[in-house]
Design brief:
Chains A, B: One of its GO terms (molecular function) is ribokinase activity. Chains A, B: Keywords: Kinase, Transferase. 2 copies of one chain form a homodimer. By secondary structure, chain A is of the alpha/beta class. Chain A has a single domain, classed as UDP-N-acetylmuramoyl-L-alanine:D-glutamate ligase (3-Layer(aba) Sandwich), CATH 3.40.1190. Helices cover 35% and strands 24% of the residues of chain A. A 9-stranded mixed sheet of chain A has the order 6-5-1-9-10-11-12-13-14, with helices on both faces. In chain A, α6 links the parallel β10 and β11. The longest helix of chain A has 15 residues. The first copy, chain A, is globular. The two termini of chain A are 29 Å apart. Chains A and B meet through β2, β3, β7 and β8 of A and β2, β3, β7 and β8 of B.
């Protein structure tokens, strides 16, 4: 039985750093080039593998040389790629990450329609999805594929959803089944139907989402950081004994600040954040611990060019202890 | 014996079209992606092959999968790649061509130092260089490699140089041996040591260059087009009988306008221009005919995204006849 299944994009990341993009008509020499396994699904799976979590990736590549290259890289990263479809006639998605000095980043994405998951792809990976303990869904995938995965997830699986559903049917299905939802500013707007005015408004949005079904929401609210809120009950997901009340899961919230130094490249921050959260919850950590591990994983990832994470669990634990201390946050008893 | 040897960059071209580049922090979906054999040397060699000219390419790729891919593509294009070095430990050069709607183009180039020609590479291709009838040199390559090629060229070879030499020794060697020099505005400045103020000034620059050695100069002077000037004497290069006076090679000049419709992507214009010129001169065409074929090849190439040419000799001949007529240019007797 799979521990964690990540359902999301797989692609080639081309990272080019330049001092500054030229004006139209101009040219510039790149100061760095990296060509990597990328895509939000793959980046999250890489992060989970680096955190020691057995992970199965479900997604689509092309039946081409770049597709074979990225799958080989995923396998070398310790990811189970048995759920990946190599689609004939579709080029593997390409994600260009143009990074100027100072952390100014532009993405140019070429994700062919064939490189997105279909309900049939999810059905083909059916046993994997049905048997997993944690199902992590990236909502940039088509709504029909997301709904197919939600239908197949076992009743006891912990379901984590990242992003905004592409249509109302998918939003209802996600809110009705997901245990945890993470969203950035633009995605929150799509989830709750209005624009947030600030952290206080984020509290209202979090309450609105929690009342719709999820046990935990994590909202990226910009400069202040991430507002994470949860409601009382047993720890969600199969890892907890059914009905057992966990003191870490009393009603609560925490505003976790952006950690680390200056941002070289924001790409991959959200994927690393979700991976940290999943790894912590799977390890029976509480919601606050999950929020801090997410924030630390994101901070590590934005400190270099490219969305591929490079996580060291011991270094993350140290960073969390240091930052919690610096920000005057209490360390929940019994956890760390 | 090789007909034409092109010495210049070989690389991977990644062409991404977008409606508009996003602001920093943003992302955009590409409307088109093309991944091609590219680099100025390869583009010129492709153009020559399309014009029916046997061509040998001398340049450097990495000893990697992309390098093997682009060499296979060059061979499929009919280019002799026996003069290409596959350098271990060097990634194949990558040229990103970001094209916005309206023909606004930005290049991001990653040309590792190892992907440039050395004198030893030129020596390794020595027989090819020494035996060719036409040597086409791209002056973006290191000066030492350019000088090594000039030293090896036979006395009767037609030598065409494109660009600006990187140092004074190379400039002296180029001016002392090249039969034809082509340069754009920035390159002219480096060649003659001052900035051009307009087409009249370009005439002075052309006269200055012609007095320094070359028989023919082609200067891209911006909106008006290309100023092409030549001085009297036998047709240059091995194609002409030594000492025989060719009436097409009396002192002369022509300002060839920019041909064709609107520009989708200016990448590759200069490479196609030089290929047209080389093909015409090799076919015993005069300087004016060479200028028109260059301009028509360039116009064809800027009409699509990416620097790779797609030349049809019959279509170019038709375009030239039509445009000469439209611009009221006399068709030189006995040619056309």
């Amino acid at each position: 039985m799979a521990d964690v299944v990540v359902l999301g994009q797989i692609g080639r990341d081309l990272v080019l750093r330049v001092a500054e993009l030229p004006a139209a008509g101009g040219s510039v020499a790149a100061s760095e080039r990296r060509e990597l396994l990328g895509g939000k699904g793959a980046n999250q799976a890489v992060a989970l593998a680096q955190l020691g979590v057995p992970v199965v990736l479900v997604g689509v590549v092309g039946d081409d040389a770049p597709g074979r290259d990225v799958l080989a890289q995923a396998a070398a990263d310790g990811i189970d790629v048995s759920g990946v479809v190599a689609r004939p006639g579709t080029p593997t998605a390409l994600l260009l990450d143009l990074v100027e000095d100072g952390g100014r980043r532009r993405l140019v994405e070429d994700v062919p329609p064939g490189a997105l998951l279909t309900p049939a792809d999810v059905a083909a990976a059916g046993g994997t999805v049905a048997g997993c303990q944690v199902l992590s869904l990236q909502l940039q995938q088509p709504g029909a594929a997301v709904r197919a995965a939600l239908e197949r997830a076992s009743r006891t699986a912990l379901v984590v959803a990242d992003g905004a559903p592409e249509d109302e049917a998918t939003r209802d299905a996600v809110l009705g089944r997901a245990d945890v939802i993470r969203a950035d500013a633009a995605e929150i707007e799509l989830l709750v139907g209005r624009r947030l005015s600030g952290p206080d408004d984020a509290r209202d949005a979090a309450a609105q989402l929690l009342s719709a079904g999820p046990r935990m929401v994590a909202l990226a609210v910009g400069e202040p950081g991430d507002l994470v809120a949860w409601r009382a009950g047993p720890a969600p997901g199969a890892a907890a004994g059914a009905g057992e009340v966990d003191p870490a899961w009393a009603d609560g919230e925490v505003l976790v600040p952006r950690l680390g130094g200056s941002t070289v490249d924001p790409t991959g921050a959200g994927d690393a954040w979700v991976a940290g959260l999943v790894a912590a919850l799977r390890g029976r950590g509480g919601p606050e611990e999950a929020a801090w591990l997410g924030a630390a994983a994101a901070a590590s990832t934005v400190a270099h060019a490219g969305g591929r994470p490079s996580l060291d669990p011991a270094a993350l634990a140290e960073a969390i202890a240091r930052e919690r201390d610096r920000h005057g946050v209490r360390i929940p008893s019994g956890r760390g």
